[in-house]
Amino acid sequence: MTGFGDRATSAPGRTGTAEFRIAIAGAGIGGLAAAALLADRGHRVTLFDRFEAPAPVGSGLVIQPVGQAVLDEIGAGEAAREAGNRITRMLGHEAGSGRRVLDVHYDRGGGARFGLGIHRASLFDALMEAVRARGIELVSGARVTAAENGQLTLASGETETFDLVVDATGAGSELSPLRSRPLPYGAVWGTVDWVPDVLPQAQLSQVYRKASRMIGVLPCGTLPGEDGQKAAIFWSLPAHDHEAWREGGLGAWRDEVAALWPEAMPFVEQITDTDQMTMARYGHGTLTRPYAERLAIIGDAAHRASPQLGQGANMALLDAMALALALDRHDIGDALQSYAMARRWHVQIYQAMSWAFTPQYQSDSRWLPLLRNRALFPLSQIGPVPRVLTALVCGTMVPPYASLMTRKASGQVF
What we know:
By secondary structure, this protein is an alpha+beta fold. The protein has helices at residues 29-40, 65-73, 77-83, 120-133, 242-260, 265-268, 312-329, 332-361, 367-380, 385-394; strands at 21-25, 44-48, 60-63, 85-87, 89-94, 100-105, 115-119, 137-139, 144-148, 151-154, 159-161, 164-167, 181-182, 185-193, 203-209, 213-221, 230-238, 278-280, 283-286, 291-292, 295-297, 303-304. It is built from 10 helices and 22 strands.
């Protein structure tokens, strides 16, 4: 058996009862957040990532208020907000009729809540800077293939034993037993320049034809090292139709977009090659037990859903925070159970809501869009339903940490 050697990590702000050596597999959103949170509690953290130079994958996303609170906890919130774009409303229309079929305000009373539209590259930079500031070691080019009772194994055959391994390797995890059900629809995503005075910059805008066609534009702030504002555009596709979309050519796609939503054309016309758009395929599933012996599973490795509610990145951030809080209170065995219990209801409810909402916006169903347009949307505008939808989008429909909730001096609730 070979090891990677003994490592030391500088970590101020210790609040827990024991110091653990912790390996985190995956330097994505959840892994970076977990590394910073755990290092702040005095644990000796090492990050492993399979890429030679860890980098974000994807385009824009929305960080909801609960996720922003986690970013603030690790000192990455200010940088993220500076790079991102405030979203105060999510608005969707039916093509042709122009009828609203989705309309959610973050705070109708003019309060402080908002979603943060941000490019993954900018969020990654903010989190990576927080990790570097803590002196956390990052081992790159290290694909983790197994973790059993604290023993981490790399594809190279090297092994090392830790007190705890955190699986933050996402939907392609080799450590998680989760086998999610593929969803019939995905989307192609791309990043383009924001075009002023075409769409509201504080709004996620979408247009649908029934549930089989959807296009959206998300203002997502700036890219690292650049000043110009960007937007993420996405086009809904059946999961098996990506190659047909590519072969059909951009001209056919642009014609379809122009007929569906002419206002989106200044954004779509910036796509000059199909390689600028990346296909994202979605799955749905949740681990009932997101841990094993000396192994914690967080983020997409523990639960997967479509992005309809804009909660994917939030869930990873909340998982990381819950795990850190659980380790504040317990030794590893009890902490893993506490982490799972704390996140159980929040994850299950949001997974259930995602399962219910997704087919209304991405499916071949004929009757679900009619139900959405004629019944569900009108009901969504009658009090107190708008407040419920706001809480749903903000991530506060149920407490995100349950029994681990504490109130900090700053007034934020964790």
